Amino acid sequence: MKHILVVDDDPTVSEVVAGYLDRAGFSVDVAADGPTAVAQASALPPDLVVLDLMLPGMDGLEVCRRIRTAGPLPVIMLTARGDEEDRVLGLEVGADDYVTKPFSPRELVLRVESVLRRAGAATSVRAEQPEPWLRAGPLALHPTARRAARDGAELALTIREFDLLEFFLRHPGQATSREELMQRVWGWEFGDLSTVTVHVRRLREKVEDDPAQPRLISTVWGLGYRFDAPLPQEGEAGRGH
């Protein structure tokens, strides 16, 4: 049974969300403020956190930062307003998804299940023949070990950033729309496309020499993005790894 921590200072919201998650088969704990949430997550690490952005004592952004210091933990952010700035801030501190209030509790349960499926895939390692590293230019990624590196240095990627980089490495030179990335990387048939935009920007900050002038992840105006795998340097063609 997966353990979910719901953090919201509105007892009505917490009660409704906890009730729907409980009926969906999850074990649920509730916290009403930031410091309590951090303490509970440390004492009993959850499998996922549903986290309100506006909290007393410590806002949701700081809570997210603190609970993620111990390792990757799936977070779904709740925002009281529909402002894109709020959504982007949540994604930039590492939230895996967000839901804008007022929201459908059933939709939230579906989002929780979706994020947990991705997180489960991220932590499982197949016992079959090991999958080879994917390589392009300075980048190397091992899908089953969930490791990625740039010029030999380990990259600290969130679950979604890793999945996005893996997709790009598997589809070099292919122009892909943000809608298709949302379907194939996030597994969503609907959602705010700014989610994709923010994650591409964060990924560029970790893999590009100059994120302001990206050479690996190019923008295809009017469509989406394309991963431009660098050509091998002279003498490198056919070199084994």
UniProtKB/TrEMBL annotation:
Response regulatory domain segment(s): 3-116
Gene Ontology, cellular component aspect: cytosol; protein-DNA complex
DNA-binding region: 131-229
One GO MF term: phosphorelay response regulator activity
Coiled-coil annotated residue ranges, if any: none
InterPro entries (UniProt xref): CheY-like_superfamily (IPR011006), OmpR/PhoB-type_DNA-bd (IPR001867), Sig_transdc_resp-reg_receiver (IPR001789), WalR-like (IPR039420), WH-like_DNA-bd_sf (IPR036388)
PROSITE patterns: OMPR_PHOB, RESPONSE_REGULATORY
In-chain residues carrying the UniProt-annotated modification 4-aspartylphosphate: 52
Biological processes, Gene Ontology terms: regulation of DNA-templated transcription
Domain OmpR/PhoB-type residue range list: 131-229
Keyword terms of this UniProt record: DNA-binding, Phosphoprotein, Transcription, Transcription regulation, Two-component regulatory system
Designated name of the protein: Response regulator transcription factor
